[in-house]
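thought: user wants a sequence for this fold. calling inverse folding tool.
action: design(structure=
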C-alpha cells in the first residue's frame, strides 16, 4: 500500500531526474552516493513507482556521461536492471531498458557484463511473446540490439579511415575500442542464441499485425528491417522463409513512395531490396 513517505520519495525522484541529465549534476549525484543510497535500494523497493522512477533517474545520470557510466559499471546495477526486466511490470521493464541502454551504448566493457548477466536470453523471451502489452518494449529491445550490433561496424569504419589518414592517436583509440567490442561480441552472442529465428519470426508477426489492422506501423517496420539487415549475411537460410513478407513490404513502400516527397518510403523499399538481394544470392548458391 502506498504511504505518504512513498509519495514523497516519488516526487523527489521526479524532480531529481530533471537535474541529473546535466553531466556534472549526474556525476555529482553518483559521487555523493546516489547510486548506493538511493537508486539501488529504490530498485529493490516493493513500491512500483519508486522502482520505475529510480530506473529513470539512473538512465538520466549515465546517458552520454562516461565518468558516471564507469562508476555505475563497478556496481551490480546491470544485474538488477536485467532481473527487473525479466520479472517486473511492463512499465518498470521499459524504464529499466532505458537505464540499460543509457549505460551500455558506446561502452563495450559494460556490454560484456550485459551479456554475462543473461540479458540476451531475457530479451529473446520478451520479443518472442505474442502480447500487445509488450509491443512497445519489444520495439525498444530491437532498437537497442540494433544499436549494439551496429557500434562495432561503425568503429571499424572509423578505424579504417584514420589508418588511411595515418592519424596514430585515433588509430590507437579505435583499435582499442574495437578490441573491446570483439570481447563482448554482441552479434556473435545473438547468433549463438537463436536470434536468426527470433528476428525472422518477429518480422513475420509485424507483417501479420499490419495486415490485420489494415495499416503499417512504419517506424516499427523500419526498425525491424534495419535489425534484419545487420544479420542478412549470417541468417540467409532463415530469412529465405520470409522472402514473401519482405517482398510485400517492398511493394507496399514502392507504392507509397509515389506520393512521398520526403524519400522515407523509397528508403524503406530500397532496404527491402538490399535484404532480398542477399537472400537471392543464397538461393542461387
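)
observation: tool returned 285 residues.
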Amino acid at each position: 500500500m502506498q504511504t505518504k513517505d512513498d509519495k514523497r520519495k516519488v516526487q523527489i525522484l521526479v524532480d531529481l531526474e530533471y537535474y541529473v541529465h546535466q553531466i556534472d549534476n549526474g556525476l555529482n549525484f553518483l559521487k555523493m552516493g546516489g547510486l548506493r543510497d538511493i537508486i539501488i535500494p529504490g530498485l529493490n523497493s516493493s513500491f512500483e513507482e519508486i522502482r520505475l522512477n529510480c530506473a529513470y533517474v539512473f538512465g538520466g545520470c549515465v546517458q552520454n556521461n562516461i565518468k558516471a557510466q564507469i562508476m555505475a559499471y563497478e556496481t551490480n546495477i546491470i544485474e538488477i536492471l536485467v532481473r527487473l526486466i525479466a520479472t517486473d511490470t511492463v512499465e518498470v521493464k521499459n524504464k529499466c531498458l532505458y537505464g540499460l541502454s543509457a549505460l551500455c551504448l558506446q561502452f563495450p566493457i559494460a556490454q560484456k557484463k550485459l551479456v554475462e548477466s543473461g540479458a540476451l536470453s531475457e530479451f529473446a523471451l520478451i520479443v518472442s511473446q505474442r502480447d500487445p502489452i509488450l509491443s512497445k518494449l519489444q520495439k525498444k529491445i530491437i532498437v537497442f540490439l540494433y544499436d549494439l550490433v551496429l557500434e562495432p561496424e561503425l568503429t571499424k569504419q572509423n578505424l579504417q579511415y584514420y589508418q588511411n589518414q595515418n592519424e596514430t592517436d585515433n588509430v590507437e583509440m579505435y583499435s582499442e575500442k574495437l578490441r573491446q567490442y570483439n570481447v563482448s561480441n554482441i552479434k556473435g552472442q545473438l547468433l549463438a542464441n537463436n536470434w536468426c529465428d527470433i528476428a525472422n519470426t518477429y518480422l513475420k508477426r509485424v507483417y501479420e499485425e499490419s495486415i490485420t489492422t489494415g495499416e503499417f506501423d512504419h517506424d516499427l517496420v523500419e526498425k525491424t528491417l534495419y535489425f534484419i539487415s545487420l544479420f542478412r549475411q549470417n541468417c540467409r537460410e532463415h530469412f529465405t522463409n520470409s522472402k514473401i513478407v519482405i517482398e510485400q513490404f517492398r511493394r507496399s513502400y514502392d507504392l507509397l513512395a509515389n506520393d512521398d516527397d520526403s524519400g522515407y518510403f523509397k528508403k524503406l523499399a530500397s532496404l527491402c531490396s538490399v535484404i532480398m538481394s542477399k537472400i537471392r544470392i543464397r538461393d542461387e548458391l
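thought: summarizing for user.
answer: Here is the designed sequence. DSSP finds 17 helices and no strands in the chain.
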